[in-house]
Amino acid sequence: MARRVPDPQLQELVTRLERAAEELRAGELAPERAAALVDECAQLAAAAGAELDRQVRGGETGVATAPGQLALGS
Questions:
Q1: Is residue 17 over pLDDT 60?
Q2: Helix 8-26 to helix 31-57 angle, to the nearest 10 degrees?
Q3: pLDDT band at 2 (very low <50, low <70, confident <90, very high)
Q4: What counts of helices (H) and strands (E) characterise the chain?
């Protein structure tokens, strides 16, 4: 199976989540900044989930449906 090139929008969301996680793990943030970053992570994760859902519903994942298995969105 050929590897699919990651969607640039989805890749950007993942990169932003990884950077935010690194900042949080460093433990050097003021409580207010940490709370704002956690909120941003939740928003980024929701956006990534919505993008993945859009791709799956649009048939853009490159994942074949196995025999006897229903496709998502059917």
A1: yes
A2: 160
A3: very low
A4: 2, 0
| pLDDT mean over 1-9 | 64
**CB–CB of 23/37 below 8 Å?**
yes
pLDDT single digits (tens) 30-56: 999 999 999 999 999 999 999 888 888
Encoded tokens for 70: 């229903």
Decide if 37 contacts 20 (C-beta within 8 A): yes
* 71 Ramachandran zone, left/alpha/beta (phi>0; psi -120 to 50): beta
Distance in angstroms (rounded) separating the CA atoms of residues 2 and 35: 40
pLDDT of residue 58: 80
